[in-house]
Design a protein that fits this description.
Helix content: over 70%
Largest sheet: 2 strands, antiparallel
Number of strands: 2
Oligomer: single chain
Distance between the termini: 44 Å
Number of helices: 13
Shape: globular
Strand content: under 5%
Order of helices and strands: HHEEHHHHHHHHHHH
Radius of gyration: 24 Å
Length: about 350
């Protein structure tokens, strides 16, 4: 009995997906480290271009400076989040009291039955009991960051041997040129995506902070950082980054004024940056179908959780580029693209 080729590919794909899901704890830090390595490489290249007279920054020094910058950013990020934990614990009784008053007002509008159901649901949320779980999650996150930073450091140590290994893996010049073209295209696309996305996300977080902080919103720094992170999640991230601070404002303040200002202000920021600034910077560099982005977001969220949502677009960019260089898979690249315009693989050689 001859097994159809499509069935073999389907079984292989199922095995790969199962392995990725089962080994999430091992693969996710490596994937993040690869992304961080790409961003660090770009940062190191920029630092190495700095010239003071006839002196330029040596590449080893540039690499050390890049690692210090990233390490400082990670420490600053975790310290801001950890410093907010005690404030969250202290503010939780006030939030619960405010929610109860809102439920009392809702009882007059919606009826006692609906308000009673909401009150019953609220009573099941024991914030104090969830603090240890939150602290454990924060500790796990810090451990994961340390592991990612360790992987990234070893990647930089191995960086000098990549060219020699590549030459031995692909002794044929034509094949080597093709593979270098694929790797270069992937590297440039992913690097461009994350650099632009990081700039746009930072701009979004700063603008949101400028709206939230003057109004006195609790944990404005944390909300701004979360807005930066949420902006990396396609489509739904901007909605979440708008809803969360608006809900905090609704519970924190006794009037609807701050809630409306934050909801409308953050929404306007997300719409302006997401619909004008980011498309102008990105251009057609991704060339991914919007439907493919949504489906990829759902799929990788199932496989790798929240991290999969962050990495869904870069992963699909890699799939698109690889498929465009394999003649048998080129139709897949056309389906994944926004307009079906896939450049000839020969154009990416060299």
């Amino acid at each position: 009995m001859i097994v159809p080729r499509w069935f073999t590919w389907l079984v292989a794909l199922a095995i790969v997906i199962s392995a990725l899901a089962a080994g999430r704890a091992y693969f996710v830090p490596i994937a993040i480290a690869l992304v961080l390595f790409s961003l660090l490489s770009s940062l190191v290249n920029q630092i190495a271009r700095i010239r003071i007279g006839h002196w330029s920054v040596p590449r080893p020094l540039a690499g050390a400076i890049g690692l210090v910058i990233v390490a400082y950013a990670l420490v600053l990020f975790t310290s801001i989040l950890s410093s907010q934990i005690e404030a969250v614990v202290a503010a939780s009784p006030r939030y619960v009291g405010r929610l109860e008053s809102l439920l009392a007002e809702a009882a007059e509008l919606l009826g006692r039955d609906v308000a009673g159901d909401l009150q019953a649901g609220l009573s099941e949320i024991n914030i104090a009991a969830r603090i240890p779980d939150f602290l454990g999650s924060a500790g796990t996150m810090i451990t994961a960051f340390s592991l990612v930073f360790l992987y990234t450091g070893f990647m930089f140590v191995e960086r000098g041997t990549y060219d020699a290994k590549f030459d031995r893996l692909f002794p044929d010049p034509e094949r080597a040129a093709t593979v270098r073209g694929v790797i270069g295209s992937i590297y440039d696309s992913i690097q461009r995506y994350f650099v632009i996305k990081l700039f746009v996300s930072a701009l979004t977080g700063l603008a949101a902070y400028a709206v939230m902080k003057p109004l006195g919103l609790d944990f404005a720094e944390t909300r701004a950082l979360l807005a930066v992170l949420h902006n990396f999640i396609p489509n739904i991230g901007s909605a979440v980054a708008t809803i969360l601070p608006a809900l905090v404002a609704l519970v924190q303040f006794d009037t609807l004024g701050p809630f409306l200002v934050i909801a409308l202000g953050v929404s306007a920021i997300q719409l302006a940056i997401g619909n004008f600034v980011e498309p102008a910077l990105m251009g057609r560099s991704l060339n991914l179908s919007p439907l493919v982005i949504i489906l990829s977001l759902t799929f990788w969220a199932f496989v790798w959780g929240i991290v999969g949502m962050f990495l869904s677009v870069p992963i699909m960019v890699i799939v698109l580029i690889v498929c465009s260089h394999i003649p048998a898979w080129r139709p897949v690249a056309v389906l994944l693209s926004r307009d079906g315009d896939i450049p000839d693989s020969k154009a990416l050689k060299g």
